Amino acid sequence: MLRISRRTFLKTASASAACAALWNSVPQLIANALGLPLGLQLYSVRDILPKDYEGTLHQVAALGYREVEAAGFFGHSPAEVKQAMDRVGLHCVSAHYPLTQLLPKVDETIQFGKDLGLSYIVCSSPMLKDPSRVRDAGSRAARESMTLDDWHWNADQFNRIGEKVNAAGMRFAYHNHTPEFRSENGVVFYDELLRSTDPTKVSMELDCGWAVVAGQKPADLLSRYPTRFSMLHVKDFKMSPTTTPSDPPPSTEMGRGTIDYHPIFEAAKKAHIEHAFVEQEQFDIPPMEALKIDADYMRAVTV
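User: That's the sequence. What structure does it adopt?
Assistant: Structure tokens below.
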């Protein structure tokens, strides 16, 4: 349970009031390129969030982020999470769950999301139809060994889960990494996943950075499937000629890597994107300094 002293509460309340005033008076806190509130995937602060949950959220809000996507709640109840988010002026839009965790607890996860007020429940990674066929079913190698049959099975799970999530008043989405862009007999798995999932039940969260690492052009994906994507992950990598999905490049701050987001955001403006979350997976400077650079980039970039 979150326990907060009177002094901390008053300090946080004052900071939240100041943030609210700033939010109302400074429109540039909107991510200019897409006209959306600035969002952050909280996986970016996974190392510090469990140690100081509300304090970390307060720092995130102070950088200008207004929407967040969860990647774990660290034992906090929906009421505690909502209270912490409300106090610092953040809105938790969605939450990530790997399919290995989601399948056994679909109803419990849906109820948690409904109590928290989520708009989306997102599957963050797929699973093998038969996990026993590999030694470590959760490894990158296992995901890269997935077959077309595995992806058809995953699509069936997504359709069933999406129907349940819809019935609870939320939406279900799937988030990609790189294995989705492998192929079998000329069939690209991601294209087949889009074909095999019901658009009324399954939306897509396009991780632009991982798509680029996989050799894709996110702008092309957004243009080919303009109604299938509802959310974006935006991140930068220091790509090199030797970069491969099996040997990914180092993550870096937005604008300091090699990914050109101008064509991506141009295509996104024509698609049906509702939320865009910055995500940084590695740091060589203090995380909050890096996330400020990311936020400044998102506020400054124009298309």
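The radius of gyration is 19 Å.
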